[in-house]
Structure formats: structure tokens, C-alpha cells
Fold this sequence. Notes:
Elements: H1 3-12, H2 15-22, H3 32-38, H4 44-55, H5 61-74, H6 89-99, H7 104-122, H8 131-141, H9 152-170, H10 173-179, H11 194-199
Helix pairs in contact: 1-9, 5-6, 5-9, 6-9, 7-9
Amino acid sequence: MNRRESLKAIGLSVSTVVLLDACKTNPDAKTEDSKIVAEVGRQTYETERDKHLLTEKYFTDHELATITVLADIIIPQDEHSGSASDAKVTDFIEFIVKDEPEHALPMRGGLRWLDVKCLNVYGSEFKSCTPQQQEAMCSQIAYPALAKPDMLPGVTFFNKMRELTAIGFFTSKIGIADLGYKGNSPGKWEGVPADVLKQYGLEGV
Length: 205
């Protein structure tokens, strides 16, 4: 199982969220009906709270850039679909740490740990390291069973980063397409298959 397939399994663990997100009306549609549909099941205070959270900023520009690099290492672009940053995973994580504050300090602390570790090893903060150095550092914290004791704080951080990246990606338009989820789309009747008609001697009917 490759990295994207493994992360797909994490994404599928939030399948309810995927389905709800996929069923939302196109946000670009400006009709009154679409506005009503988009808010079904939500209280006014919930909508207002989300709008307020979107006006706030938690991460610094440096932290956001680091998150983007990490997210694209976790889910890079491939021949099938775009990368985590293409799916706006960085924006998702920025929103999540405000919507669910219990993620905020662990994420900030983990980003700081990563920068300090890279400064000690490579002489540069993580986002300024070469791609090879970034991959090498991530490989030391991506596999808990193989990690050295001094890398355990990084393992904890990377686990959270990987989980949030997978959720953000597989609940995005790009990620839903990557899963192959079609939603409630109308089918197209093309008649009884030819092999079935032949089986019952009805091919000429």
C-alpha cells in the first residue's frame, strides 16, 4: 500500500464528513435557494461563528509556509490528482486550530520543535532546508515504531499533522474526486447488456 492509499484509509475514517461536504450546494451558486440549502441543519450562531473564525489568523506566515511544505510531503501531487496544497489543506488546518483549539498549541509546538531540530542538524529552519533534507527529517518522525527516543516529540506532532492533512484533503473537492466518490448522481439507462440478452436468447428482440 503506497502513501496515498494509506492516507485514503485515514480519510475514509471521516466518511460522514466526506458525505456531508460532498452534498453541499456549490458555494459559487448565488441563488437564494442555494443559500437556504447550504445552511440546512445549521443554526445562525454556527454560521456567524465560522465567519468570525475566518477573519482571525492563528499561524504566522512562517508557520503556514511550513505547514504547506509538510502537507505536500505527506500528500504530493501525482498522476491521479493534485497535492495537499492544491486542495487548500493549509487553509483547512488554519481553520481547524481555531474551530478546535485543542489542536492549536500542539501544532505550534510541533512546528517549533521541527525548526529547532532542523537548525541543529542542517543549520536551517525546516522550510528553508533542501527537499532531500526535509524528506530525511520527515522519515525520522513518520514511522513511530522506528523512531529514536529523541525524535518522539516529532512523532507526536507528525501524527497530528498527517491526520489533519488527510482529513483536509479527503474532504476537499480534489480529495473526494481522488476517492472516486460520485455522490447522488442520476444514472443513465442504456438498456439490458448485450451479454445478458444473448444468455437468454433475446438478442434479436
